[in-house]
From TrEMBL:
<dbReference type="InterPro" id="IPR002048">
    <property type="entry name" value="EF_hand_dom"/>
</dbReference>
<dbReference type="InterPro" id="IPR013787">
    <property type="entry name" value="S100_Ca-bd_sub"/>
</dbReference>
<keyword id="KW-0106">Calcium</keyword>
<dbReference type="GO" id="GO:0048306">
    <property type="term" value="F:calcium-dependent protein binding"/>
</dbReference>
<feature type="domain" description="EF-hand">
    <location>
        <begin position="63"/>
        <end position="98"/>
    </location>
</feature>
<dbReference type="InterPro" id="IPR011992">
    <property type="entry name" value="EF-hand-dom_pair"/>
</dbReference>
<dbReference type="InterPro" id="IPR018247">
    <property type="entry name" value="EF_Hand_1_Ca_BS"/>
</dbReference>
<dbReference type="GO" id="GO:0005737">
    <property type="term" value="C:cytoplasm"/>
</dbReference>
<keyword id="KW-0479">Metal-binding</keyword>
<dbReference type="Pfam" id="PF01023">
    <property type="entry name" value="S_100"/>
</dbReference>
<keyword id="KW-0677">Repeat</keyword>
<dbReference type="GO" id="GO:0005509">
    <property type="term" value="F:calcium ion binding"/>
</dbReference>
<protein>
    <recommendedName>
        <fullName>Protein S100</fullName>
    </recommendedName>
</protein>
<dbReference type="InterPro" id="IPR034325">
    <property type="entry name" value="S-100_dom"/>
</dbReference>
<dbReference type="GO" id="GO:0046914">
    <property type="term" value="F:transition metal ion binding"/>
</dbReference>
<dbReference type="InterPro" id="IPR001751">
    <property type="entry name" value="S100/CaBP7/8-like_CS"/>
</dbReference>
Amino acid sequence: MSGTGTATGTPTGNESNLESAMQLMIQTFHKYSGNEGDKYTLSRGELKEMLTQELGNYLGNPQDKDAVDKVMGDLDANNDGEVDFTEFIILVGALTVACNDFFQEYHNDDKNDKKGK
Ligand SMILES: [Ca+2]
Ligand SMILES: [Ca+2]
């Protein structure tokens, strides 16, 4: 936990919500990426642990091995068998977009006088 520099993941106590969210994403990634193999990438096992612990509500049942393989295949853009931080952030981004779509649909249904984009 030392010698990693000062650029990221060092809370100063006065972050905005978005800055806190970014730090949380970084900290969450490294919480799982450091368990085995390369410290800075998620192996299949680390990915599964992360999905189970952090995204169980969104992804259903990540205990399902096929589901983990599918997420891994979708995320591993450079096909090195590991999920690096850039690949991880794409997952978080895609899930956040999906949540936002759901949120908007929910509110559109609320007042269904107008439909459109
Ligand atoms: Ca790792
Ligand atoms: Ca990769």
